[in-house]
Design goal:
The protein is mainly alpha-helical. 61% of the residues lie in helices and 4% in strands.
Length: 144
Amino acid sequence: MNSRELEACADRLEEFLFKILRDVGRSERRRHGALYVQGLLLDGERKSIEPLAQRVPGGNVQALQQFVGQSPWAWDPVRRLLAQQMEEELLPAARAIAREIADNTAPVSIALTRQMIWRMAGADHTLRAHRRRRPGSPTRRWTC
């Protein structure tokens, strides 16, 4: 993603980051977290802190290193919110695509349809495409 593309979705990204980073604590952490995510999204071969900080306007190597490696924020709530957000945003679209594939595929090639759906889910093996919920956990986990 280049700077122009990032700017085109700036409002949506800001809304997303506001939700995801709300539990990291201090406002400086939220700001550095947002810069870190922007740096990850921008074009660039290296995603380590120094090159990332150079790509992002206002990027500070020391502040980003501190956010990633030393800042005392709990990652579990952020991960939970991210999983919930992705499920809300992506799952309906994935189901619609899967339904369209299934509806437009001959019954003879149902195995191929399943394999395509597993691959779309990012699984390299059919058993990795099955998901389960741990009791009491709002997030979904991949199982082998």
